[in-house]
Amino acid sequence: MIAVVAFGWALLALPGLARRRLRLMEPLMEARLSALSLAFGSGLVVFGLVSMSLPTLHDGVGAHQLVAICRRLIHDLLAGGQFGGGVAALLLAILLVRAVTGLRRLRRIQQAAVIEPWVGHHQRDDNDYEFVVVPTAGFVALTVGGSTRQVVVSDGLVAALSDDELTMVVRHELAHLRRRHHSYLAMAALIDSIFGWIPGVRSSTGALRLALERSADEEAAG
């Protein structure tokens, strides 16, 4: 199962390592392939660690007959014996804690991103999203996905850009909304929380985020 974990790690690092070749593709295809590699890589790492740790965990709860069956079934795949199983169990516990922490942080960020009705100027669009102008002199342009769909810009940005420039910015943010890029970004944030300490992972999630921005740019440019 060490080979399975190693292959999962390779898939997690692949989008970052192959970003130059991936950028020869259309940005949306690059984003989808990067997300697929990250998702499968995460699943393989978890599957491999669970398989390696099961005999050790069963020993700990006294299920000796089940332990014997598991060991016979995966004897040729399981490397490291009790020591390897203990290390795998420890890594699984660390990943679980990081996953719970990451999910809570992601939920807080998503809730904080929604602009409440009493803040700024809200205009409901026919396509089921709100266009919001927030009262700040800073330059703000972002999209809020999920159940509350919003395109948010600031007074400062509106004042600084021409009408054509502002239209392009809004079209860019709408592309994020239409293509549900917030789902990809949420996955990237969660993978960073869980696996970000593994070399190569943050480079891969960064490549995914850049591909999403390039995709929105191209769609905005028409």
Description of the structure:
By secondary structure, this protein is of the alpha+beta class. It contains 9 helices and 4 strands; from the N terminus they run αααααββββαααα. It has helices at 2-17, 19-22, 27-61, 64-73, 81-113, 155-160, 163-178, 181-195, 201-221, and strands at residues 121-124, 130-134, 141-144, 150-154. It has a 4-stranded mixed sheet with strand order 1-2-4-3. α3 (27-61) packs across α4, α3 (27-61) packs antiparallel against α9 (201-221) and α5 (81-113) packs across α8 (181-195). The longest helix is centred in the N-terminal third of the chain and has 35 residues, at 27-61. It starts with a helix and ends with a helix.
Distance between the terminal alpha carbons, to the nearest Å? Answer: 47 Å
Tell me the major beta sheet.
4 strands, mixed
Please report which band the strand proportion falls in: under 5%, 5-15%, 15-25%, 25-35%, 35-45% or over 45%: 5-15%
Q: Mean of the pLDDT scores?
A: 87
Blueprint (SSEs and pairs):
Layout: H1 2-17, H2 19-22, H3 27-61, H4 64-73, H5 81-113, E1 121-124, E2 130-134, E3 141-144, E4 150-154, H6 155-160, H7 163-178, H8 181-195, H9 201-221
Question: In brief, what are we looking at here?
Answer:
With 222 residues, the chain is of the alpha+beta class.
